[in-house]
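Minutes, project check-in
Item: structure for the 175-residue chain
Input as provided by the requester:
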Amino acid sequence: MRKILVTLLATALTACATAPSYEGARQSDFSQANYDATDKLMSSIVSVPIDKNTPILVATMVNIDSLTQSSRFGRLVSEQLATRLTQLGYHVVEMKMRSDVYVREGTGELLLSRDVQKLTKNYNAQLVLVGNYAVANDYTYLTLKAVTAADNRVVSAVNYLQPVTGNNRALLTAQ
C-alpha cells in the first residue's frame, strides 16, 4: 500500500512539474521586447506628470523611409504598445474606433503632424506615442517616443531592436 501511495505521489508531482501554465498567455520574445520598451519609455518620463486616467493616443509605427507607410509589423508593434499601456493601467484611446483619425487601409492609424493638436484636444490626450522602424539585414531598429499633446515636446524616447526572423520578415513584407 505504501509503495502505491509513493508511486501515485511521485506521478502527481511529475505531472504538476511538467504541466503547462495557463496563468497567462504565452509570451514571445517579440512581444516581450515591445513590452520592455513601453515600460522603459513610461518609467523614464520625469519632466511632466502623467495621469493614468488621462487619455494616451498610440499611432501606428511607420517605416522610417516613408512616414506614410507601415506594415503588419508596424501595426502589430503599435497594438502591443497599446496593450502594455493598458496592462499598466493607463487610459488608452482605441484609435481604430475613431472617425477623425487618418486611417489608411493596409497602413494603420497615422497621426499627421497637422492633425495631432486637433486630435489630442478632441480626446483630451496628454501623450501621443509615435515611432518608426528601419529594416536592416539582421535587425529591425525601432524608435519609440512619448510626445506631449500640449506642445509636441518629446518627453521620453527609447530605441530597441527586433531580430529579422522568418516571422518578422513575413510581417514586414505584408501590407
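Outcome recorded: Residues 2-18 form the longest helix (17 residues).
No further action items on this chain.
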